[in-house]
Amino acid sequence: MQWKMGAKYLVLFGLCFLGGRFVASEQAEMTSGEKRGELAILIDDFGYCGEGTAEMLELPIPFTAAVMPFSKCTEADAEAVRQAGKEIFIHMPMESLTGKREWVGDKGIFREMPEEEIKARVEEAFSILPDAVGLNNHMGSAIMEDERSLSAVMDILKDKDVMFVDSMTTAKSLGRTMAGQKGVTFLGRDVFLDSTDSVEEVKKNLRKAAEVALEKGYALAIGHVGPEGGMVTVQAIKELIPELEDAGITFVTVTELVK
After folding, report:
1. What are the residue ranges spanned by the domains of the chain?
2. Angle, to 10 degrees, between the axis of helix 147-160 and the axis of helix 175-182?
3. Average of per-residue pLDDT across 145-157
4. Domain 37-257 has CATH 3.20.20.370
């Protein structure tokens, strides 16, 4: 009788053990099947000593800093970016279809410039920021629609083996087409984060970027230091980091998206 009872308990123990292993296996499969995505944030307008510059660089996540190459604080901001261990892009001023010419600056790229002058201007930007691993357009809707001008820009990027990010300032952008023709690595912006004084609005846009990343595996969002974003953007990113990471987001630099 005692032998039968012992055998009965042994069988029950075995069933419970196997059942536990089955549940654990199911849970592991569910975990491995959860969506994950990489989110790169490109922060524009370093180079102006703008509001939120220091605070942005203190964020505990990787991101890419786009530095204006011909501005009063270019060198100081670029050095701060390096010290913070962040990735550097050139934020190249380019002619806009609607903005004022002075917003681009004296050393922007304009459609009336000969191709060799455009190339020299881009070369000059890289001489100021030699460790830049890519370039994106500041304004630039006119240039992004102009094949001749954009071709000259892409020639230099190809020679330097760096990538181009299209800020998507015009729906008629030739960025992807020209980059493809020249063999330049290309990414286009998925979500625009700021130009608002509402932290909640920036958070809303960050969540949208996360949704894109979880859906297709990656996303590129663009924000700013200075008047277009600054402390509003810093606060929104800082407060949302835990939520997005818990949702399956990994923060990366722009170049890590294409590796």
Report:
1. 1-32, 37-257
2. 50
3. 98
4. yes
